[in-house]
Amino acid sequence: MRFCIECSTILQYQGGTLKCPLCAYVYPIDKQIVTIEHILRKVLDPIFSEDDMKTMPQTSNVRCPACLHSDAYFHEMKILNELSIILYICSNVRCRKHWKS
Ligand SMILES: [Zn+2]
Ligand SMILES: [Zn+2]
């Protein structure tokens, strides 16, 4: 999140740039960064059903940051040509925390 240097309003994404909704300030930003941030925001708020999880692979190489449970479902997502992230979902049914690598 970035703020307008003129009036401290939260800048909003608009047509690949960050713009202040109050004044005319435009934050110069690389288009690819906007895309990555946009995708990451989506990835961080995923909706996997319990049925989806049954088909997901599991790993015991990670530890849940919330409940310290030592295994998790994971899902690798390619978000750009060279960039992929792994999304983990805690396999503790009472926790189900989502986090990314
Ligand atoms: Zn402003
Ligand atoms: Zn957990």
What does this structure look like?
The chain has 101 residues and is of the alpha+beta class. It folds into two domains: 1-43, no CATH class; 46-101, Single Sheet (N-terminal domain of TfIIb), CATH 2.20.25.10. 18% of the residues lie in helices and 30% in strands. The chain has helices at 31-43, 50-54; strands at residues 12-14, 17-19, 26-27, 58-59, 72-80, 83-90, 98-100. The strands form two sheets. Strands 4-5-6-7 form a four-stranded antiparallel beta sheet. A hairpin with a 2-residue loop joins strand 1 (12-14) and strand 2 (17-19). It is elongated, with a radius of gyration of 18 Å. The protein binds zinc ion (ZN) (2 copies). One zinc ion (ZN) is lined by residues 64, 66-67, 69, 90, 92, 95, 97. InterPro entries: Rpa12/Rpb9/Rpc10/TFS, Zn_ribbon_RPB9, Znf_TFIIS. One of its GO terms (biological process) is termination of RNA polymerase III transcription.
